[in-house]
Amino acid sequence: MDAQVQIRNRGYGIVVEPLHGLVTARRNGIILAQSTRAKVMYETRLTPAVYFPAEDVTAPLSGHTSLQTFCPFKGTASYRDILLPGDRVQNGVWAYEDAMPEAAAISGYIGFMPGAEAEFDLGRNNVEMPDYGNISGPVIDWLLRDAALVPAPEELTAALAEKLVEQGIHLSRLSVMAWSLHPMIAGKNYIWQRKTGEVTTYAPSYEIHDHPAYQNSPLRHVSNGLGGVRHRLGSCCSDDAFPILEDLRKEGATDYVAMPLRFSDGRINVLTLTSDHPNGFSTANLGLIFECSDVIARYYEIFMQRENAQSLLETYVGRRTGARVLGGEIRRGDGDEIDAAIMFCDLRGSTRLEEELGRQDYIALLNQFFETASTIVHDHGGEVLKFIGDAVLAVFPAGSDPEKARAQALDSARAIIARLEEIAGEEDGHRCEAAIGIAYGRVTYGNVGSRERLDFTVIGQAANIAARLGDYGKTVNHPVVVSCDILSDPSQGIPLGAVSLHNVSQPVTCYALAARTEPQAAAE
């Protein structure tokens, strides 16, 4: 008998048909199940799956394992081990104890996982893969053409939602959770709502992973590779439902789905869909989206890769420098000669601090020092180019206003010293002191290094002098030492005369800066 089902429409679907006569499943010659009531499920794009009534499974099974997976079309699957003499097949069988309406015919039936390596004797049945054809139609056409012109993820989210509504899907809410590579942001969550027609973007920190709301959320389950989530929201939600579903139900939602969006690097992101239609989503509705999900994922991956590249470059080389690298200055020798004030800010007594505090507390102190210096430099218009050991190298480009660049560097130095004093006076605060050198001059701002390993930095006498002035300040016990061309008014500093510096050919006339410690100085 031919048990192949004839597909009557081109929409995604599930069809369950009875198999006639005796059907047997074996593993290495051992009968696992045998029944005259077996069924076959045809699900679009998937290999036909054979299911047996639970009472006709003859192989011993364990109790339910901890594994659960979710299918938006069939429901929640539970798993058991197959217990054969000397052969335990972990999670060898699955069952949908309470399948969705479209798959209700297999509720309580047992299927064998591919890893169980079951061989099926179908008797006189002939089960073959149907010809499903093309079921995506206009949505795929849009994704292949118009979607490529959408410039931002927020706009893509809105356009995708509107296209699905246009195709007859009763969508009240759509969200995409895309994980990122950012030192502070775990990812971006784009949420479209029909009632406003707008997209709201959230950028949660990594603390989201420890938050109870996330721990018991569909986002976590799907991201952990447990498959999709489907809940029809009736008058109330079941006890084991996710808390967010009750919130959505109170807003009028009737159906909720979360399905994976897989990136090419293996990360699993999440697409969620909510309907307020009395009948919720149809299998054809969800199947259409499921068919398109890999293409949708690629668009978001491109957006996130761009954001990741920008955020990582800004994190490691600074905002201005990162923009230049993304703008194409990626070859050795690419760069410009600029006039700039260069600041070298060094943590004093770091060896002693590490011995006194221990490695973990010292690293925390060092991070606090870097955070203090880099935040103040940024707030004063400068850019931190790099951290060198326990020191900060910062640049204040002059552009058309050299006096402003000098003033920004001076104000940054004063504010750093003042803030470190404040931290020392706080509860559990540690006293740490900085040695700061500032010089002004023409430097090369660009790529240097080997062919395979480049560094975007500043090269020039001003950078060298700034580092040496900081070292000299330690010997004369002045926290800030600047070259004479930094001060517009020499009376602002303490003359130190012409000083011979290591690896600087000519003596440098310099001044010590009397750092102001009143609160307003730090805010300048």
UniProtKB/TrEMBL annotation:
CDD domains: CHD (cd07302). This is DUF427 domain-containing protein. Residues 341-470 form the Guanylate cyclase domain. It comes from Leisingera caerulea (Phaeobacter caeruleus). InterPro entries: A/G_cyclase (IPR001054), Adenylyl/Guanylyl_Cyclase_3/4 (IPR050697), DUF427 (IPR007361), DUF427_sf (IPR038694), Nucleotide_cyclase (IPR029787). It comes from the Bacteria.
